[in-house]
Design goal:
single chain; alpha+beta
Length: 93
């Protein structure tokens, strides 16, 4: 899910998964702001996707250079019909 969020910058999922993903992705973005070789290796170890790693370090992280956390937003949308799970969008601010 972290790869999908990085590549699309907005995904729809359940509220519980969105809250769990928020802490994971915010730690990665904070780490990616350093942008050196070791950062590339460490983030790739978490994501296992070259394109997502490149996009996170080269495009997404520089936008948050001045920001101290709070890189994502969760917006509750609807109740899923099949199992009545609350759905939400999680997006990069």
């Amino acid at each position: 899910m972290a790869i999908a969020l990085i590549m699309h910058e907005r995904i729809e999922t359940t509220v519980a998964k969105a809250k769990s993903l928020r802490s994971y992705i915010e730690k990665l973005i904070t780490k990616a702001r350093e942008a050196d070789f070791n950062t590339h290796r460490e983030i790739f170890a978490h994501l296992q996707d070259k394109e997502a790693t490149k996009k996170l370090i080269n495009e997404i992280a520089p936008k948050y250079k001045d920001r101290n956390g709070g890189y994502t937003r969760i917006v509750r949308t609807r109740t899923r019909r099949g199992d009545a799970a609350e759905m939400a969008f999680i997006e990069l601010v």
